[in-house]
Design goal:
- This protein is mainly alpha-helical.
- The protein has a domain of 106 residues.
- Helix content is 63%, strand content 0%.
């Protein structure tokens, strides 16, 4: 989060004090910090990464000249993509992916998921992400490939949550929760923590548990995940299944508002509603939380 944006929020909050109560990845996933697993019933990573059976041979490297090593193929494939040589890049990336290079598997998954340089193929993306989690799900969190693996678990969680039309992948919220939980706990991935918190709030794939939701949203919020900051702020401000802490909720909503994307109108609306409903004392305390946060970021 840019400091200038937060400072702007501080100014806005200062103005609010005088009011009477009324209111993707750019190609490189964010690094993660590991936290220990806490669930004794946690499924093995190899089990989580096992995909629903798909037609054999659905992913096959293109034929043609290849670099001498898989890592060389990854490097040259990335360079060819930047130069606009998509067909050549695909052959190189698919060769690297077939040899187990995590970054190549992740990149191909993202390309097919979004239709970036290739025809969009959600099922093909699903298989690349599945292969990645199956082969690298037990890798140490601090390794270079860990951020790709964590994001692959998150992507699979989304597919299992919604299902893939006209495919063997049907909606399975319980499976989605397993994917999010593993990435959130083992890899400490902030997006996985956010989605896991949402599932606990929506009782999707299991019982509703606002306390667990607040725990996971809090972990993601402290890492700067804006959606988690907004959702945590909203439930704290309302006291939704947990003790109400309006000032702290307003603080998190303020941070979220400053990082919200233009299409995330719900974040701005949640912030505006909280500001209108907060008391003068709650606004003042939220401003103090904001000042403390800024000092901590500068030190």
């Amino acid at each position: 989060m840019r400091t200038s944006k937060v400072v702007a929020s501080a100014a806005l909050m200062g103005l609010a004090l005088g009011l009477s109560p009324a209111a993707s990845f750019d190609g490189n996933p964010s690094p993660t910090v590991a936290v220990p697993l806490t669930s004794p019933n946690a499924p093995a990573a190899s089990d989580l990464g096992r995909a629903t059976a798909l037609p054999p041979g659905s992913i096959a490297p293109l034929e043609g000249a290849r670099p001498s090593t898989p890592l060389d193929a990854l490097r040259s494939g990335t360079q060819d993509l930047r130069a606009g040589h998509t067909a050549q890049a695909l052959g190189e990336l698919e060769y690297a992916a077939a040899q187990g290079v995590a970054a190549a598997q992740w990149k191909l998954g993202r390309m097919y998921a979004s239709g970036d340089g290739v025809e969009k193929n959600t099922l093909r993306a699903f298989e690349y992400f599945s292969r990645l989690t199956k082969q690298h799900g037990d890798d140490a969190p601090g390794t270079p490939q860990a951020r790709y693996v964590a994001n692959a678990f998150v992507e699979l969680g989304q597919y299992y949550l919604e299902g893939i039309p006209n495919s063997p992948i049907t909606a399975d919220p319980e499976r989605a929760r397993e994917m999010y939980w593993y990435a959130a706990s083992y890899f400490a991935d902030r997006d996985a923590q956010y989605y896991l918190g949402r599932l606990y709030l929506d009782h999707n794939g299991g019982a509703r548990d606002p306390r667990q939701a607040a725990k996971w949203l809090g972990l993601a919020a402290k890492k700067g995940q804006p959606q988690a900051q907004a959702l945590l702020g909203a439930i704290l401000f309302r006291g939704d299944g947990i003790a109400r802490r309006a000032a702290l909720g307003l603080f998190w909503l303020t941070l979220a508002k400053d990082s919200a994307e233009p299409h995330e109108a719900w974040i701005n609306e949640s912030y505006a509603n909280a500001v209108a409903q907060a008391t003068d004392a709650e606004r003042t305390m939220a401003y103090n939380y904001l000042e403390s946060w800024l000092r901590g970021r500068r030190e």
